[in-house]
Amino acid sequence: MKAFTLDHAADAQDALDALGAGATAIAGGTNLVDLMKLQIAAPDRLVSIRRTGLDQIAPDGEGLRIGALVTNADCAADGRVRRDWPLLAQAILAGASPQLRNRATTGGNLCQRTRCGYFYDTTQACNKRAPGTGCGALGGFNRIHAVLGTSDACIATYPGDMAVALLALDAEVLTQGPDGERTIPVGQFHRQPGDDPSRDNTLLPGELITGVRLPAPSGGMQIYRKVRDRASYAFALVSVAADLAMEDGRIARCALAFGSLGTVPWRDRAVEQALVGETPSPALFDKAADVLLRDARGFGENDFKIVLARRALAATLAEATLSNPAKG
Predict the structure, then answer these.
(1) Distance between CA atoms of 64 and 273, rounded to whole angstroms?
(2) Long-range CB contacts for residues 98-103, cutoff 8 Å, separation at least 24
(3) Which of 207, 259, 299, 324 has the greatest CB tally within 10 Å of its CB?
(4) Angle at the Cα of 4 (from 10 to 70), degrees rounded to 5?
C-alpha cells in the first residue's frame, strides 16, 4: 500500500475543508481500503469523517433521515426502518457479512465502486481503472456483468443491495459541498458508464454525503428478492426490490428496482406503468418483463441473466400480490 497521511475531521465543515484541499474521505473503509491495498486507489491524504456526528437516525417530517455514518447493521436493526421501510432492512441484511455490515456506512455503501474482476486485476484492460485501455470483460469472462445500461467502455454491474431498495423507496441523498447543500434523488446519484466509466456517481469535487432521507411510509407490501450463486456473502446475479399495494384485486401502486442487471441500480417506470391498474397474472408479469428487458443485451456468458431476470420478477410480483391484502 502506498504511504498516506490520515487526519480526523472534527465536524462536517472540517471534513469539507480537507476535501477541498484534495483529501479523500474515509469512513468504514470496507471498499476503499481494499482498493488501496491493490493500489487501484492511491490517495496521498485521507480524512476520517467518523467523528463528524453524522451517525444518527431521526424523524424527518413523515419520513426518516439516516445519517451518512449510520452503519448498515444499525440501519437494518432500527425499529422504525424494520416497521415502516422493511425493504431497506431486507436489502441490507441480504448483503455482505455481519462483520462488514457492522463497519460499512450508509454514505460509503452508496459510494462503493462499480467493479468487476477486470477492475481489480491491474494486468487486465479496464477503462474504469485506466481510462482508454479498453474493457477486458467485453470479450472475456462476463458471467456476472450487466445487461442494461452498458456501453462499449464498460459492462460492470453496480454490486450493492442497499441502493436498490432506496431506489424503489424514492429516497434522496443529502449532501454538503463548497456551494452549499444539495438533495439528489437516488435515481440520479449513480452514473451509467457511457464513454467515461471512471466516474460512478454525480458527487461534485469536495462534496460530502451527510445522509439519506426516506419519504413517508407507503404502507404497501415490500419484498427484496436476491438471486445469487450461494446463500450468503455473494453479490446478486439478479435482485428485485418491490413496494406494491393492491386494491379491489388490482395492482393500485407499484415501485420496482433491480440490482445486478444494470451498470447502476435500475428502475424503469414503464414497467410499473404496465402493471398498475391490472389484475395480477402470469401473462401480466411476462408483459412487465418484456418492458423491462426490451433493451437488454447479453455478452455471451451473462445471457442467462435475461431469462433469470424474467423469472425473478415474476416470482417477486406473485409473492407481493398474493401476500398483499386487497383494499375495497
Answers:
(1) 27
(2) 98/73, 100/30, 100/72, 101/71, 101/72, 101/73, 101/76, 102/71, 102/72, 102/73, 103/28, 103/29, 103/30, 103/71
(3) 259
(4) 40
Buried b (16+ CB within 10 A) or exposed e, 168-183: bbbbbbbbbbeeeebe
Identify the CATH assignment for 5-48 out of 3.30.43, 2.40.50, 2.40.10, 3.90.320: 3.30.43
One-letter amino acid of 194: G
Q: Which residues contact 271 (CB under 8 A, 6 or more apart)?
A: 256, 288, 291, 292
Please state whether beta strands 250-259 and 208-214 pair in parallel, antiparallel, or not at all (unpaired).
unpaired
pLDDT < 50 regions, the chain: 328
What's the CA gap between 29 and 36, in Å, rounded?
10
Which triple of cell numbers denotes residue 248? 379491489
In sequence order, what are the residues at sequence separation of 6 or more whose Cβ sits closer than 8 angstroms to the Cβ of residue 83?
none
| All residues at 6 or more sequence positions from 127 whose CB lies less than 8 Å from its CB, including other chains | 133, 134, 135, 153, 154, 193, 197, 198
Based on its alpha-carbon atoms, the radius of gyration of the chain, rounded to whole angstroms, reads 20
CA-CA distance, 293 to 98, in Å (whole number)? 34
- Residue 116: closest CA among 201, 233, 24, 197: 197
pLDDT in tens, 206-226: 999 999 999 999 999 999 999
Q: Would you state the pLDDT for residue 232?
A: 86
Domain ranges in the chain with CATH number 3.30.390.50:
222-323
Length of the chain: 328
3-state helix, strand, coil in the chain (%, to 5): 30, 25, 45
- Domain 222-323, CATH: 3.30.390.50
